[in-house]
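Supplementary material to the annual report.
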Amino acid sequence: MAKHHVSATLNGNAVEYLCETGQTLLEVLRDELQLTGTKEGCGTGDCGACSVTVDGRLVCSCLVLGVEAQGKKIETIEGMAEGASLHPLQRKFLEHAALQCGVCTPGILIAARALLARNPDPTEEEVRFWLAGNLCRCTGYNKIIDAVLDAAREMRGN
Amino acid sequence: MDAKTIKQEEVLKVVGTRPVRPDGVPKVTGLARYGADFALPGMLWGDILRSPHAHARIRGIDTSKARALPGVKAVITSADFPEQKYEFLGPERVAINFWHMTRNIMAREKVLYEGHAVAAVAAINKAVASEALRLIEVDYEPLPHVIDVDAAMQPDAPLLFEDMITRGVEPAPARPSNVSKRIEFKLGDTEAGFAAADEIVELSFKTAPVHQGYIEPHGCLARFDADGQGEIWASSQGHFVVRAYTARLLDMNIGDVLVHPAEIGGGFGGKTVVYIEPVAALLSRKTGHPVKIVMSREDVFKATGPTSGSSMTVKIGVKKNGKIVAADGVFKFQAGAFPGSPVMNATMCGFAPYDIPNVRSVGYDVVCNRPKSAAYRAPGSPISAYAVESTMDAVAARIGLDPLQFRLMNAAKAGTQTAWGPKHAHDGYAETVKALLDHPAYAAPLAKNQGRGVASGFWFNNGGESSATVHITEDGSVAVATGSMDIGGSRASMAMMAAETLGVAYDQVRAIVADTASIGYTHVTGGSRVTFATGIAVVEACNKVIDELCARAAMIWNVGKGEVVWEQGCARFSGQDSGKFEPLSLKAIAAKRAVTGGPIGAEVSVNAGGAAPGFASELCDVEVDPETGSVKILRFIVAQDVGRAIHPSYVEGQMQGGVVQGIGWALNEEYIYDAAGHLLNAGFLDYRVPVASDLPMIEAVLVEVPNPNHPFGVKGAGEANIVPSMAAVANAVANAIGRRLTELPMSPPKVLAAIDSGRRG
Amino acid sequence: MSDIGYEAPQTLAAAVALLSGANGLARVLAGGTDLLIQMRGGRVAPGLLVDVKGIAEMRAIVAENGGFRFGAAVTCMELVEHAAFAAAWPGVTDAVKLIGSIQVKGRATVGGNLCNASPAADSVPALIAAGAIARIVGPKGSREAVVEEIPAGPGKTTLAQGEIVVSIFLPPRPPRCGDAYLRFTPRTEMDIAVVGTGVNLALDENGVCRHARVSLGAVADRALLVPEAAAALIGSKIDADALKRLGAAASAAARPISDKRGTREFRIKIAAVLARRAAVIAADRAGRKG
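Predicted assembly:
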């Protein structure tokens, strides 16, 4: 069977790739497009390390097929900074030491950005429930929550 | 509250602050490269065939069909690995045996657990590699299996090794068993001690195996050339260990293997060993191409070491006034398929926070048909602490003493005799207990269905071999390199210690992790040793550089070396008429390096002794739903003696992370097997680590009783925090429901059953 | 997996033709959050994936005859973000909110949750309690079925080959009504339900329950509609006695297995606890006093 030829938008730029039906968007990003910032932690949608947004919607890229991204707007961690300027969430994660090994960090940043786009003033509980799909084994989540709430404050202009 | 602070003779400018880590930006932008993120032209994908049986003899392996599949470039089995000599090497607590290790990498005579590697392939892509595995035919003779530690110790248990005679027993047993070793530590006379006790409590406990649960599966890329030299990019806690083990298992010179330290996505001890690196290396050598292997999450659970499940009995005897007079502990640990559980650590650590005149502590290392256990954060100690600290609470309740006061009354300090030989060399434990006693939360009221638990714990912390280089660049910035893989921010603390020692700004210093060819031997990032031992190496290298900088300044000024001192980042003339010369900064001296002798730098290798142990005491408040057995953590405070926190945020992060692992271990995490020895929950759906919504904020209280053996007073901080956590939760649940569970995890059905038996009884 | 076909039809007729014509080897691809995992695990090996996300009727949420109709391929997030639907059916919304994580809900669909036919599917007891009706289209035309008729056992539905669930209809709400869904999981999120309970009820002007439907999930090979449990509520003011009878009926109806997620005994117990608690929430939403 011939591969699918997919055209999409990736981090604001036009992108094209070939993929087999069974290849996930995660595999396409990492193996075909060499964007290894999006991580595979489990391959079954249980850890969130592979989080990206598709048409603004937060998803696990291990549960999306590459062919399903046809015509869609994909955003990954590599597109989160504005050129050389870090997104406030990225800055706050560094300030608050909200990462130790850092492997869950791309997924959590993408998920947190999606939260703040929808709810710019979340409570601690709302942040915790939104991020329940992102496992972190190093931090106990404490400083991640601190960083997200602090970034939200800055983005609101408080 | 009154956090213990140390009178400082000088004000520290960098140590104790919270700067951004030097490797931070790549990590938040997705550019940092972990073990699975590397690729090379011509790369092949490696994949590993794993046993479907918990225990079976391998009668034969036919790889012919796999070899014939187009796109397959190599197929290997254990026959391709050299045999290893059977001998235990290294200190007893952490002894290794390459005869076992090569069999764990790839099974020989038998498969000893579901998931045990039996063959591997290298192919042009993942799909061909998977298909090739399906074409390998293994002729298994399934055998009866055993997993539970008590079952494995029964006289009629299936044997993993028909010739295993228990070590540590005199005279040696006549019959083989699954007990690889018996360990015993004794102090005083426990029989007499118990006879003199006013109250004795004896309880038995069981825990299930739990996995370290790092989010990043093992991954590596190996490239081995026709001349036998090779490179490996691996996410590992110890690239020197990857080098040494790979070389040994492939019968190569260690110097012919170069290991690059990839970023690592969590280890917690589980990545201090090798699984896939020797396989990738051998496949690369055979094919002449780079080979990449990445484990799936399922394989991580099925084929990498969780820690031991256990069966334990603890007995403590006290006088009415609360003085402990005798303690006895028997700890039986699952080693998994090959000997080497952390039971020795457990027998040593369990009673270590206390001054007890009569102690007997016995351990059994028992093999069973599940993956070989690997280190998990203070290996062994959290397990024995669960048993000891639960019993301590039961004792306090029996004699009507406050559980923290009871611990304080019996607290070990510098000079206290341990059960395993030496005397404690450091204070720190009592201070952690006092930190909780003084905390306002300890007196906070509790509502219905709520309970409060406290617990303490001990971990040795390690020193050991570390190497560091410090070089001054041409413009006076500082390049620090060490051999310590950075799991959690150690590049920041290395840069901070260097900046403090040299008296320069933090941003003037950059710290990297060097590969195995570029720096001296450095032991694993584990055992809470890096800030301590590698920190010492960095500081000593800085001191050497300072010495050299002063010598260069003396040359520049044409004065005696004894007339130059280093202060606040500059060389200063200390002779007569001290205003004669303007101070020389790093930048100024570096600019003149060529005419004063050349590049300025130093390398130091140490085998650091003088590590001080970690003590932690923890407080946990829970609320139990009396109709469902659900346990909610309301509050958690961890007070840990860290000596001195170089970067307090990262030290707090270690404490919070360790506690949350302990909470998962206490409430939900366990390996679930079916009757045939297959793992039923080999994924993050049903192996339940805590998620963000399960937890409150974890409060970290940094207690600082400095370690005089480290230039900044550091005591290892990474591990001691997990040790008391399960007991703290267990004691809280016991206080909430009025009954004590003695099995982990305390999942809702078990809690509900305990509540219901209380209602009826 | 290089020999799997993929088609993205834009009409129902095209989709039905593809599904009927593939000798049983075609699978509907909506959210894919169950299917992709099953394919990776080797439990399912489709020859053709029929992506239905381009079919307009399957993606719409519309008010209809006083009720709501939402397409089977509407994602969970789209449904919970629909303010009017969430206001009318807070219990169904609570159930859908519990499916997986935010990421999973960004792709997963209620149609998929129903047709994947896990006995523990979260949306199903809530839909059954709500009296939801599925519109199904197949080679023989269109038909309707109450949602409780669709799951036939773990991983099996009563759909014939070539049939697709197109949309789900929830009837208009009477005055003084409320619905609720609760589930038991060991963690607060991310787990498969050990027990799930959906309660939908309506009170009269005196606070007496006149209509009720109670459904249980994860305690049998498929979600159960439990008329005896509803009977315990009807005619009562949802008082302690009625709740006790409700719980007993729920436990009696439960016929769970013991598996890695829960024992038989535990599930039977919890069915009663959650049924009672869900009934209280539903009654409070119905505006009962005291």
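Chain A is about 35% helix and 15% strand.
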